[in-house]
Amino acid sequence: MKPNDPLPEVLRYTAFSRDPEGGNPAGVVLDASGLDDADMLAIAADLGYSESAFLTPPPEGIEGLGDRAFGIRYFSPKAEVPFCGHATVAAALALAERTGPGELVFATPAGTVPVEVTEEGGALRATLTSVAPHIEEVSASDVGEALAALGWPEADLDPLFPPRIAFAGARHLVLAAATRERLADLAYDFARLETLMHRLDLTTVQLVWRESADVFHVRDPFPVGGVVEDPATGAAAAAFGAYLREFGLVPEQSVLTLHQGEDMGRPGELTVTLRAGDRRVRVSGAGTRIGQDASGRSRA
């Protein structure tokens, strides 16, 4: 961006909650074509949200929907990330408010991600379809280092959920707590976990606890992004859905509910849908625009 160019409009939305004080807030720039990497990082850092989304015209060759196809990039306050679910949902809702519900397609650094926006009871809801996921082994020493950084004894893990790295656009280490109390008690060594995550190229650590057959509570430490915890994490939800299917922990065709943000005072709800015969994972949720006060600062 040149010195005299006007600043782009930065919208603020929360994803995975209809309450602006719930879910995960994201910045959205609908026209970032005049911004370079430093500009986008500076805007994301100024906002301080876990990620912000920056839209550009779609690259050539994308299988799109005319003017409903976009390029998209994601920046945390510290770095670019390859894929961010909640910022994708936020961007889709921002576009739908202007052009109406329907299908959208985003060319992300991780691959092409279709999104369908529907209207339910006067509110908009977005469903993204992930890129093809995969699950990776993780060494016992790396799991031990993650537990040491978290301050979790190995005995506090649920033995039915083997630690793995799950990918559905970004890499997440999945660790399952044996109790809700263990999940709620999160006070970790920021620098130590950040170092491990950089070495393993992780976006978050997906901490989970199973409440019932199809209901989970999740938390996502995010030190590599410069924030302690991500309040509602669509990319990790997609990866976790693939993980559950990989180990037969849920039926091949399932609709799962993930609760996140409760321990942070920003409750949100993510719906994860698995379809038989389709490796991709669908993540859906509501959202709303975050208002601003007279100074232009976010109220949420």
For the report, how would you describe the main beta sheet?
Answer: 8 strands, mixed, barrel
Which class do the helix and strand fractions yield? Answer: alpha+beta
Strand line-up across the major sheet:
1-2-3-4-6-7-8-17
Would you identify the regions where 5 or more consecutive residues have pLDDT less than 50? 293-300
The named CATH superfamily of the largest domain: Diaminopimelate Epimerase, Chain A, domain 1
What keyword list fits this structure?
alpha+beta, 17 strands, disordered C terminus, 37% strand, Diaminopimelate Epimerase, Chain A, domain 1, isomerase activity, 2 domains, 6 helices, PhzF family phenazine biosynthesis protein, eight-stranded mixed beta barrel, 300 residues, 22% helix
Report what the structure shows.
The chain has helices at residues 37-47, 85-99, 140-150, 180-184, 190-200, 234-246, and strands spanning 11-15, 24-29, 51-56, 69-75, 80-81, 102-108, 111-120, 123-129, 134-136, 164-167, 171-176, 204-212, 215-222, 227-230, 254-260, 268-275, 278-289. With 300 residues, the chain is an alpha+beta fold. The chain folds into two domains: 11-118, Diaminopimelate Epimerase, Chain A, domain 1; 134-286, Diaminopimelate Epimerase, Chain A, domain 1 (Roll), CATH 3.10.310.10. It is globular and about 55 Å long. Mean pLDDT is 94; it is low at 293-300. Belongs to the PhzF family.
